[in-house]
Structure formats: C-alpha cells, structure tokens
Design goal:
- It contains 6 helices and 4 strands.
- By secondary structure, it is α+β, with helices and mostly antiparallel strands.
- The strands form 2 sheets. The protein has a two-stranded parallel ribbon. The protein has a two-stranded antiparallel ribbon with strand order 3-4.
Length: 148
C-alpha cells in the first residue's frame, strides 16, 4: 500500500468493495467523490508512503483509511481513535471532515477519542463519557461543556 497513490488505493478498494451491479465508471465516480469528501483531492497522485518511503502526512494517511471505509456509504460508522498519533491541527482536520460527512448524509458516527482538544470536543453533538468502564455522563456536548 505504501507505493500506491491515494487515487490507486481508493480506486482499487472501490473495485473490490462496491457491488458488481455498479459499472466501472460509477465505481470510479464514487471513489473520486469520496476522495473529495475527505479533502484529499490535492493529494490524489501522491504516494501513500510508509516507514521507508516518503509520502502523505499522518493526518492524510488517516483520511485515506477512512475514505476506503466509507466507499460503501455505511449509515453507521465506528471509528476507534481516529485521531490517535496526530497533532491537534491534524486531529481537528480529520474530525471536521468526519463531522461534515455525518451531517451531509445523515450518517451516525461513533468515535472513541482520548483527550480531544477543546476544538475537536466542540465538533461533537453528543457525548458518552466513560471512567473506569462506567458511564459518568451521557447527553449533549453543549450541556456537558456548561457543567450541567
């Protein structure tokens, strides 16, 4: 995967994941739209890269993985620590894209995040706060932010 470009990786995944009833053209269009949704259009021809090969930034790599997962347009998406290992700016960018997807297509997205920045925290509508595996708060993010 490190030697593939963003376009190649997403197109390849579209060919594998999308139904045979979709034409090659429709799959390509879905892949292109998904790349744009995740804000990766400027990096389409950039190699993904890895430990020994220079390529995308950490935030861009994370968005490519999410891009591949949302090709099928799932109505429910679980993301386990989608901002792990990213700096606060990259974390915000990734989560902002994810929130936009949820709002555009009325998707339900459940994400586990440890210690989000205040900017990322404010992007969420609802919050389930856990401590030692127990729910200590469940409700709107704005009410939690107000202390109520």
């Amino acid at each position: 995967m490190t030697t593939l470009t963003v376009r190649e990786a997403v197109y390849y995944s579209a060919q594998l994941q999308l139904p045979d009833s979709m034409s090659k053209y429709e799959k390509k269009e879905r892949a292109d739209a998904t790349i744009r949704e995740m804000g990766l259009q400027d990096a389409m021809d950039t190699r993904i890269g890895g430990w020994s090969v220079k390529g995308l930034s950490g935030g861009q790599k994370r968005r490519v993985s999410i891009c591949i997962e949302i090709l099928t347009r799932p109505k429910l998406l679980f993301l386990d620590e989608p901002t792990s290992g990213l700096d606060s700016a990259a974390s915000y960018h990734v989560m902002n894209r994810i929130i936009r997807l949820a709002q555009q297509d009325r998707r339900t997205i459940i994400a586990s995040i440890h210690q989000p920045s205040s900017e990322v925290f404010e992007l969420f509508q609802n919050l389930c706060l856990l401590s030692s595996g127990r729910t200590v708060y469940f409700g709107s993010t704005s009410a939690a932010n107000e202390g109520g």
